Each structure stands twice: as C-alpha cells, then as structure tokens.
Amino acid sequence: MFSSRLQSVLLGLITILGFIQASSAAGASYAKHPTRRIAGISVIDTPLVRAAESFAKQHSSHAVYKHVMRSWLYGTLMLGANETLHRNVDPEVHAVATLLHDLGWDTTKNSPLISTDKRFEVDGAFAAREFIHNHKDGKRWEDRKVQLVWDSIALHTERSISFFKELDVQVVSKGIIMDFSGPAYDVSEDDYAAVGKVFPKNDFKNAVNQSIIWLCDTKPKTTYDTWMQPFGERYVEEYDPRGKQRIDLMFQNLTLKGQ
Asked: Signal sequence span per UniProt (predicted)?
C-alpha cells in the first residue's frame, strides 16, 4: 500500500513538473523574439508581424489602421501585466491576428478580400489565413497557430464565445474591446492614454459607423440577425430584416401545415 501511494505521489510530482517545464519553455521560446517599441510599449518585431502591419495598413482606412494598432498595443499590455498570459500566449499569433482582424472592412472596390456572402469577421479570418500561408515565415507555422489566428478574427465580436476559447483568442478579443470600452484587464489608465496619444481615436466613431453601414448596404444578408442589424435598420434605406432572421426561419420550417 505504501509503495502504491509513493508511486501515486511521484507520478503527481512528475506531471506537475512537466507542466511547469513546458510552461517555462513556452515562455522562454516566446521571449526569444526580437522587439521594438511603439508608444513606449515593447512589442514583438518579426518579419511576419511587420508584414501584417503593412498589409493591414494597405487594406484599411487610416482610422481603422489606428484602431488595429491600438488594439494590438492594449493586448500587448495585457500580456505584460499577467504572468499566465505572458507565458502561454504566443505574441506573434496575437500580433498577426489583432493587426489583421478588420480586413473584412476593406471598402476598396472589388477588393479580393471581400466576399458577397460571408460576415466581415469571416472574410477577415480567411484573408489572414491566406496572408500567413503566402508569407515565407508563415509557411512554416504549424496548423494550430494558423487556426488560432482564424478563430481569433472570426470570433472577435462574439464575446459570449471568444471569452471562453483559448487564451490567445481571448486576448485578441479583449484587446479589441478595450478600444471601445476603455482600460481593463490590468491595463492602467496612463498606459491606455499613452497609446491614444500616438494613435488618436478622434475619427474612430465615424469609421465604425461608416464601415458597418457599408456592410449593411452592400451585403445585407450577412448582417441580418447579428449585432450589425441595428445599423442597417437605423441608417440604410430599404434595409429590411423581416422574415430573414433565425426565429423566422425556424418557425417557417418547423410549423406543420394546418397549424
């Protein structure tokens, strides 16, 4: 019996030590990345991240570009303020996902990034995945990292889902949300304000309104029954979600004849 208990204790210790070692290895691996400073914040600086920033700038208005930069910096501050996040969230995954999260707002005429039948979040997720696959360093990424970027972008507006996904996905969503709601998640008011001085949000409200209105106007079917629907109802003439929401489709298909 004593031998059995000893074996159980040793097995438990081995498991714990293995977890600690793996966590430390992950943290050490992430710490090896080169860095640069933006708004006084140390951020990861790899060719892939630089390319992602450039790609975002190419496919965004100036106001939206500033938004993705602020979101990235807020998320980076989160990583620096929380040891668990610092050790377990891949800063390159976080950077690429956050920088590319609004590719679905590319209003350029005939943009290859924009579909006619998908929500903007999904357009952005697919565009980011293609960007990674086309980059010489991204080609070496394991599938899981690419999937984390896809999930982070596709779910970034759906807090009831993204907040319960992997830590990488959570941080992307929370960093983006901070640009709307203010400092949180151990990000100080001073650090938050410093980011806003470098990337001011004076034009952000109008950019958000125009982007969502554009989606409701150009591909309304992707906005029905979503958080975007009120923008269409309020600002887009002839926008009509009646009979096109999930409750309508459910009752239409489930109601028997004669009832």
From this structure: 1-25
